[in-house]
Each structure stands twice: as C-alpha cells, then as structure tokens.
Amino acid sequence: MKFTSKLLVSSVFVFVFCAAAQSQEADLVLRNGVIWTVDEALPKAESIATLRDKIIYVGDESGVRQHIGQNTRVIDLGGKLVVPGFNDNHVHFEGTGRLLYGLNLLDVSNAALFAERIREVHERYAAGTWITGGDWSAYETWAANDVAEAGRQVNPDDMYGNLFLPNKSMIDSFTKDRPVLVRRFDRKVYLANSAALERAGIRKGMPDPEGIAVERDRSGEPTGALFNPVAGAVESTVLVQDNVRLLFEEHIPEPSREQRTAETLRAWEQMKSVGVTSYSDVTSAPIQVDIYQELKDKGLMTARVRYRPPLDQWESMNALGIHVGFGDEWIRYGAVKAWIDGIMGNSSARFYEPYTHNPSSRGIWRDIMFPFERSPDNPEDMQSRLERLALQADAHDIQLTVHAIGDEANGYLMDMVERLIEKNGERDRRFRLVHAQVMTDRDIERAGRMGVVMEVQPYHTSDDMRWMEERIGRERSRGAYAFRRMWDAGSVVSFGSDSPGTNASRYYLNPLLGIYAAVTRKTLSGAPEGGWFPQEKLTVEQAIQGYTLNTAYAAYEEDIKGSLTVGKLGDFVVLSDNLLTMNPDNIKDVKVLTTVVGGKVVYEAP
C-alpha cells in the first residue's frame, strides 16, 4: 500500500469533523497569509482556524469569516508563510536539556569566558548540584604561546594538544561550596575545582590516582587539571580510557527531579522558538517519562513526544500492554531503539571496505550484535542477539528503530528486515532506519521496496561533508545522505536533528537548518558552490514534508498531525520568509515568528 493511500484511512473522520465545524466560532484564526498545508487535497490556502486543539477550517479569506466571533483571537499574517508544526524524528532529549539549561563550553577557549559561563550556571543551579560537562575548546584553540602560564608545569610531551588549559583558580572564588568537574571536548583533559578535588582525595602531597596525571604547580598543589591516558603519536593521540570520569562517578549524584524538570522546560522553550511541536525522544532516563506526565497534567507541555526506550526493554513494554499507538496525543510509546555500529565522527561506523584514511579498520559492531546464536527456526543459521530481540519485539507489534551509519551496517539491517518479513509476515511495520548515512545503491532500492522509513538528519550533510571523502573516498561518499534516491526509491524520508550532537559537533534543534541542508547540500558558510553531490537535493516542498507529515507517518500519527487538514491537531508555525519562493541559500537565516500547539499560541518572537 502506498504512503499516500494510507493517509486516506482517516478521510471519513475528517469529512464528518469538517461538516460539524462549518459554522463554529473559532478560538484562533490566522488570515491573510500563505498556508502551505502539506495536504495533497488542498496544498495552499489563505486562512486557518482552530477550536480547542483541532483545526476546523483551512481555506480562503471569505470562508474563514464565519468562524470569527467576539472571543476569537485573529492574527493578520500579512502574507507570511504558515507550515505544519515541525516534528523532529531524533532528539537525545536528556542531553539537549542538560546542554541548554546547564553548561555549554563548546565555543570557549579563554579564561574570562570560561569563568563567566560557569558562574552563570552556578547562579542558576540549586545548592549541592554538581556542575559537569562543558566540552571546552570544541570550536577554537589557543595560540601555542598562550598555553604556558607562569608557575605551571605543562605536560612536556604535549600529548594533549596545544589547547586552552583552565585552572581551578579561575572559578574557586565563587564555587567553593559547589563541586565542579568539567571536561575538554575530547575528554582527554578535565578541570576540577577545589571542592571536587577534595571529594576525590586529590591533594597536595598525595600521589596521583592510578591512571590519571594530576597537574601541579611548583609547590605541588593540584591546579585542577586532570589528564586521562592517551596513546599514539602526537598527531593522532587517542583516548585510552576515561579514568577521570570513572574516579568521580561515585561522587557525583544523579540529577535531582527538580534539575531534570528545569532542563525539560528549558528544552521545550528552545523547541518553541524554532517551531518544533513534536519530537521523538531516543535516550532519556525512565524518570523522564514521569516528568513528562507530571508536566502534561499541569498543562505545561508545549511539544508532543514519542518516547523510545532501548530494544532490550521490549518484554517489559509488552507486559504493560505497550504496543504501537499506546498513549495519547501528547505522550506516545510503542517503539524501541537499538544501535548496530559506531559513528563517522570517530571512524567507528561499520563499512564493507576499510577506511581510506585508516586501512586497518572497517569500523565496529555494537555490543547488541553479540553473541551470535543458532536460529531456533534453522539451527544451521547463526543469528545475532539484535536480530533475536528484533524478531520478538516485531512479533508483538512493537516498532523497531535501529541506528546504522556505515554501508555494511545498513546492508545488514536490510538483510534483517527481509528476514523479519519472511518470518513474521507482511504488515505495516514501518521499520525506521536511523541515520542511514552511507548506503549502497542496492540497499537504497531494497529499503524503498520494503517500505522502510528513513529516519535521517539532514544537517549531518552540512557538518560531515567537510571530511567525509577523506574518510571513505569519493565513490563511497556518493551514497552518503542520498535523500533524493531514497525518496525516489519509495522510502518515506523523515527528518530530524540528532540534537545535541557529539563532543565536537553541535546539531541544532532548528529545523530550518535541516531544510537548508536538504535543499542546498552546503555547509552553513555556503560551500561548495552548487552543493555536495547536488543530484541528491530535495525540493523545499519535499523537505518541509520530511519534517512534518513524513515524521508523523513514521510514528503512525499521520491521521492526527503532519498536515494542516481539518480535524487534525492545531500545530503550526509562522515563518519570517516564504521558503517556497526565496533563495534556498537564505533558508538558514529564516526565523520562526509564531508557534501554535493544540490551537494555543505558545511562542511569539520578540
């Protein structure tokens, strides 16, 4: 069954709803605009009206007048563009909230800004909460002559890079009662203040903890800089083990419920400002679900969530009766997540052939692949742990979503989906191939034929194109982020952000950056001219659909969201510029003016 025909399942409901809503007074009306509906039956309109949380009218100016009453809020759009609320298919919500509410040192590489950022967090955090994370020097480096300061004994081998090295004296004066343990982006170096050092027993006159090099001044006093072991030549030093984290983890308490709640609200604030009205949460702790429910009960939710625990929790979900579609319009469950290989950033994605820049490596398989066991159906066949769990979850109507980056990882999953279909039968399973970053032509074709949902993050293209060909060569790079071929092969291409990103790369929640990447295939600085593998560009209309209707479809929610259709939820955004007619190179600069969730205005730009 084609994607478009599946959308007709709810057509009877919409017809009945439309008939009942013909003369109702609306709570909210937006008029005199360009409404891009992502609805094939009525692609463009001038006005839209909502009552309570549903859309009751989409059409021209004359028709919306009957819905305007004394209590209707009317917004004159002045020709601005309205699109469905953006639906992010892949958010590491816990990490996103922690970065936004907590400490962000990614762009920090000097003492003044280092102290300023930590002071800001110190003044915001509750007493007793550790300040952690940070990832300083991700974007900038110090000049070589700035590293050595008077009284400091710099590591003589310079094995840790010529980067900014902070000192506890920069922050001790205002954090004396609060432990601080922050890290450099590569985790090779940490900075602990005096309160944190004391808890770990790192003092003057005491030996260094095993596996950690403690920097000390001339008197032997620890400066706060702690070095993890590294191996390799200076040009390619790699982290052996994060001994600093291991030493401190027993001292650092889990974030309090109050802290997590504050982080949740801060993440939603960011989502509102960029028009994200729905998202899939892929990694948060189980307590996050309880916080979602509490905030929903208080009427504080401003974004709808699809929560995905790890695959190995499928039996617990099944015992609770959680399957596809479980939940309500705010919080839904029924899907699980697994990881099959590594990532491109550290060259651990799994490929058929070795990396171009490292011929000794083809990447890794994640732990869930092991052990390989004999198949219960055919003892001659060996089956990975991943496939055993996937077959079981799939048989119990739980949706599968699996991370795959390299071409061999994606190829294995296409083989696995074929076996899922063979053993569990044909059905509407909507297997979500997460990232699908590098694929062969054969696997792109197979994915389309089997109805696989491509859960991709287009901003990865802008970020990774700068070094992808160095890692895997020009020919294999042709299969990287092949959105046009995926679309044309018949896959449903769904978009998201992968926020907040990795140690050295920030993946922003802003969907407009993803749309920009999908239609231009350029970096944010506008390179290369014409775009990277420009034959894989999507149209603006397709990119909007990828961030709206297609992600709703990926979550079995296309009947309630994803297009501006009468009877669906009133989730939409007003943009500063018309994406449909503007120069695509400028899409990255477009702003969200208004965000509406469930018929309520939750954000208006200053």
From TrEMBL:
Keyword Signal: yes
Region forming the signal peptide: 1-21
InterPro entries per record: Amidohydro_3, Metal-dep_hydrolase_composite, Metal_Hydrolase, YtcJ-like
Keywords: Signal
Pfam families xref list: Amidohydro_3
MF-aspect GO terms: hydrolase activity, acting on carbon-nitrogen (but not peptide) bonds
Ranges where the Amidohydrolase domain occurs: 73-603
UniProt-recorded name of the protein: Amidohydrolase 3 domain-containing protein
Organism: Woeseia oceani
